[in-house]
Specification:
- The protein has 73 residues and is mainly beta.
- It has a single domain, classed as Beta Barrel (OB fold (Dihydrolipoamide Acetyltransferase, E2P)).
- Helix content is 7%, strand content 48%.
- It is built from 1 helix and 5 strands, in the order βββαββ.
- Strands 1-2-3-5-4 form a 5-stranded mixed beta barrel.
- The mean pLDDT is 94.
Length: 73
């Protein structure tokens, strides 16, 4: 799937599980499982509980996504 086909959603990190899995809470109350994208791993960008992030979600499976941006406080 091309990068242009992904849906960008803003949310807040609510929980962190092992293996680099984050749970993102969206405004409408839905939780999404997400992992860090490759560039965030490459540049060692840390994401902790409480951070606002942008998640790229596939329109075919809206329960999984990639964290593509962490907002500065």
């Amino acid at each position: 799937m091309a990068k242009d086909d992904l849906v960008m959603i803003e949310g807040k990190v609510s929980d962190l599980k092992g293996g680099g899995i984050y749970f993102i809470a969206i405004e409408n109350g839905v939780n999404i499982k997400a992992k860090l994208c490759g560039k965030m791993k490459r540049f060692n960008i840390k994401v902790v509980v409480g951070d606002r992030v942008t998640v790229s979600v596939s329109p075919y499976d809206p329960t999984h996504g990639l964290i593509t941006h962490r907002f500065k406080i």
